Structure formats: C-alpha cells, structure tokens
C-alpha cells in the first residue's frame, strides 16, 4: 500500500478539502486527487463521495480512516527504530553488576531522553569487536591490549580506569585495615573462581599477581557469586578482589569489608569500542560522559599492566 497515498487521504480528511490538503502537503490539488484515486482503485472502494459541497467520506472511507491513521503511526515507529539519533542505542555492558553497567545507569539518569537497550553478550574481546563491526551492538567495553588487531571500521578510546578493592570477612587479618598495598596481598589466599585463563582479563590479573608477588586461586567449581561471598563471610583466610564500581549485595550478618588497595592503586583500564562510521549522536554523548567520570590519577599513584602504559598503534581514537 502506498503510504504517500494513505498520508494524503488522512490529510484530506483532517483538512476537509483537497485544496487545503494540497497546501499542507506542498503538492498540487491534482496530485492529491490522483493519489486518492489510486488508493481507491487499489482498495476497490470509493473513500470519498464528490458533492457540490466538496468531498465527503463514504461509509468505506469512515471504516478505513482509523486503520489509515494506525498505518501512519506504525510507519513512523518503524522509521524511528532505525534512524540515527531516534532509535535505541544498544550497548553491551559485559555483566550486570560491574562498573560499566553502573556507569550506563548513571548516564541514563542524566540523559533520560536517550533510549538505551543494555545487553550482556558475555563475549570475549574478539567476539565483542565482531558484534560491533557487524552492527549487532553500537558499543561495548573491554581492555584493548596493543597486540589486538582492530578492523578498519572500529574505533576505541580508554574511558574507564577502575580501582580494585579487597573484599574480606570480619575475621580476616586485614578486616580492620583502612587500606592495603598490593604487596600486602602476598601470603593471603585470594580466591577468584571462574577467572578466565586467557584473554585480556587473564593477562591483567596474571601480570598484577606476578608484579606484587601474590597468587590468585581460580580452581574449583564455579557457583553463583553469592556462593563466594558466603565462603568469605565465614572464613578467616579467604579474600577476593573486586572492582570499586562493582555492586554486590549480601546480608548484613555477613559483615563483609571492602578495603581500598593503594600505593599504588591497581586499575583495570577499559576502552569503549564502537564503529567510527556509526552516525548515532548518542555515541558522542556517551563517550563524553564517560570521559568526564574518568579519574586521572598521577602515574606514580596507580598501577596498570605494561600494555596499558602506552597508546595502542591500532587505536583510532585517542585514549
């Protein structure tokens, strides 16, 4: 069905005259008549009865009118669903409880006019980049080592530096510490079951542990995160590492303690990844917002892996 003809029909009904409908649509009165005649021919009915007083809706025209209005509303929604700046911005936050999800929620609060579709692909860096390149998502967040080969269409920018905290129970020897240094982690059992054995996350924690002389225990069955929190609450020799922006909930009786790690503060560097030719204007606003939230601490106060201490040559946006 010709939507221009349907639009002309509705305009003629609302205006009351073909001449006024023509002026509203910026076409000739003859074009209005032709469009409506074509619509009537396609439907096999008369929509208007021509009288000396002008065109009046027939019974068929009255029956068709609400459906014509709905057709135009559906067409408008379909157009908005894909038009840059009007369609929903689809962003992969990797996991629901980590800092990326928290920042996206804050972005939504400060930019309520931007519609978001927040998803979790649970994909590694290569798969996430492939999803961005294919247009499955508009943006994602991962650490991007310099060895990572980026497709020509992909842009990245380092926008999140998340500090780490030590999470312990009330009977742990470090439970009452105001802060700990990375060196103080040596000799303590740091449990992180399910930690990847390869990829950018594995590389980060492997270098972190090796640099400061502690061991991360990744063995054993992987249950829900709540199971680890339950273990930590009852143990005097068990701890884990969590991101400062990670949100976990636990019963008050657990009395878990989040202790900042400082001197230096280890930070996990994450980049926003998007297609450079993606015209959605909300991508610019999202990146600007994340840049405004990023803390730029002096280099001698933070620790980042060696691959994050320089800008990757394949990155197409400044970090």
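^ Assign residues to that structure.
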């Amino acid at each position: 069905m010709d939507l221009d003809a349907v639009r002309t029909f509705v305009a003629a009904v609302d205006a009351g005259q073909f001449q006024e409908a023509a002026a509203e649509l910026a076409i000739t009165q003859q074009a209005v008549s032709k469009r409506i005649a074509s619509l009537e021919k396609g439907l096999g009915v008369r929509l208007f009865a021509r009288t000396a007083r002008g065109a009046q809706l027939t019974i068929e025209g009255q029956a068709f009118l609400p459906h014509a209005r709905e057709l135009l509303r559906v067409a408008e929604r379909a157009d908005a669903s894909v038009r840059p700046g009007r369609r929903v911005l689809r962003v992969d936050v990797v996991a629901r409880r980590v800092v990326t999800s928290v920042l996206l929620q804050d972005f939504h609060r400060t930019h309520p006019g931007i519609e978001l579709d927040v998803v979790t692909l649970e994909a590694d860096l290569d798969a996430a980049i492939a999803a961005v390149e294919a247009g499955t998502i508009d943006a994602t967040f991962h650490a991007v080592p310099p060895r990572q080969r980026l497709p020509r269409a992909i842009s990245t920018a380092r926008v999140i530096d998340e500090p780490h905290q030590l999470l312990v129970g009330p009977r742990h020897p470090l439970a009452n510490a105001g802060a700990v240094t990375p060196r103080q982690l040596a000799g303590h059992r740091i449990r992180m079951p399910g930690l990847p054995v390869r990829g950018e996350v594995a590389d980060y924690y492997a270098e972190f542990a090796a640099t400061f002389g502690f061991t991360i225990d990744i063995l054993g069955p992987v249950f829900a995160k709540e199971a680890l929190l339950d273990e930590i609450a009852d143990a005097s020799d068990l701890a884990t590492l969590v991101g400062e922006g990670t949100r976990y909930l636990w019963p008050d009786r657990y009395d878990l303690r989040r202790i900042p790690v400082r001197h230096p503060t280890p930070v996990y560097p994450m980049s926003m990844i998007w297609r450079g030719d993606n015209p959605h204007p909300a991508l610019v606003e999202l990146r600007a917002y994340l840049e405004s939230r990023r803390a730029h601490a002096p280099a001698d106060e933070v620790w980042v892996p060696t691959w994050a201490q320089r800008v990757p040559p394949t990155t197409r946006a400044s970090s």
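The CA atoms of residues 189 and 238 lie 5 Å apart.
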